[in-house]
């Protein structure tokens, strides 16, 4: 359950959701090569979500059934008003998409799940040589060979 506690939020989250938060922060820190926080990850992710969450409704429902939101672990979020507003908008959009009421914690869980899934997919593509930068290098190499 979320309670307003200026200047941020305090959520009581499950151990599973806590582990998802730490994995998201770890991935974001490795992406930026700087120590990140859950608040900085949320700010980054909410600023990036113009098209919404990439996961399909069935996947989101499965995620929510596997990763409980509420628990005993306190998570303090100190995020800017814009990020808080966007997170609330995401919660409303996902509630409508799924046809059920979601909490702020649920929206956070889905946001983190979407980010972790995206980063893991990018890593797999990179390993097999199908990431965007590698593809551009391969095209340039082929063009250079053709000249």
Structure characterization notes:
This protein is mainly α. The protein has one domain (2-122). It has six helices and three strands; from the N terminus they run ββαααβααα. It has helices at 15-32, 38-48, 57-66, 81-98, 104-127, 132-146, and strands spanning 2-5, 8-13, 73-77. Strands 1-2-3 form a three-stranded antiparallel beta sheet. β1 (2-5) and β2 (8-13) form a beta hairpin. α2 crosses α4 (81-98). The longest helix is centred in the last third of the chain and has 24 residues, at 104-127. It is globular. It starts with a strand and ends with a helix.
Q: Could you estimate the helical fraction of the residues in percent?
A: 55-70%
Molecular shape: globular
Per DSSP E runs of 2 or more residues, the count of β-strands stands at: 3
β-strand percent reads 5-15%
Mean pLDDT: 84
Q: Report the structural category.
A: mainly alpha
Oligomeric state: single chain
Sheet with the most strands: spatial strand order: 1-2-3
First CA to last CA: what distance?
63 Å
SSE sequence, one letter per element: EEHHHEHHH
């Amino acid at each position: 359950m979320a309670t307003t506690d200026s200047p941020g939020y305090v959520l009581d989250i499950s151990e599973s959701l806590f582990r998802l938060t730490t994995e998201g922060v770890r991935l974001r820190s490795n992406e930026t090569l700087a120590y990140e926080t859950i608040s900085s990850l949320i700010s980054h992710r909410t600023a990036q979500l113009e098209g919404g969450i990439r996961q399909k409704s069935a996947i989101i429902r499965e995620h929510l059934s596997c990763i409980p939101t509420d628990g005993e672990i306190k998570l303090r979020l100190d995020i800017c008003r814009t990020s808080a507003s966007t997170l609330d908008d995401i919660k409303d959009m996902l509630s409508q998409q799924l046809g059920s009421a979601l909490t702020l914690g649920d929206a956070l869980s889905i946001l983190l799940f979407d980010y972790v899934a995206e980063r893991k997919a990018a890593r797999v593509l990179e390993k097999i040589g199908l990431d965007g930068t590698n593809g551009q290098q391969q095209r340039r190499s082929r063009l250079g060979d053709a000249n």
